[in-house]
Design a protein that fits this description.
This protein is mostly helical. Helix 1 runs parallel beside helix 3.
């Protein structure tokens, strides 16, 4: 069993590591993320909202439950990846016109 001092030091180290996880998510510049396809901007914005919500949950849990905070930061990272993925998708190319006359060769 750990002494109180060792347990406090271990908990402190865990909190610092989890805070680093949070800083990694926060370091990703998502402000103004714009979709290449304007039709996908709504999906991008929804994912960005989820990022903010998960970060807020993690921040609230950081001191008392660092393991839970880390889970929230992981979810925030995943939503950030989804937002970037949706933003990077370009518009679908137009379909080629149908050839209605099979004898026109």
């Amino acid at each position: 069993m750990l002494s109180d001092e060792a347990a406090a030091a271990a908990n402190d180290a865990i909190v610092r590591l989890v805070a680093e996880s949070r800083s990694l998510v926060g370091a990703v510049d998502l402000a103004g993320l714009t979709a290449l396809d304007p039709k996908k901007q709504d999906k991008v914005d929804k994912e960005l909202t989820k990022v903010e919500k998960e970060l807020a949950k993690g921040d609230a849990a950081l001191e008392d439950k660092p393991d839970k905070a880390n889970d929230y930061y992981k979810k925030a990272w995943q939503h950030a990846e989804h937002a970037e993925k949706h933003a990077a998708k370009g518009p679908k190319p137009p379909k080629p016109p149908k050839d209605d006359d099979p004898d026109d060769s």
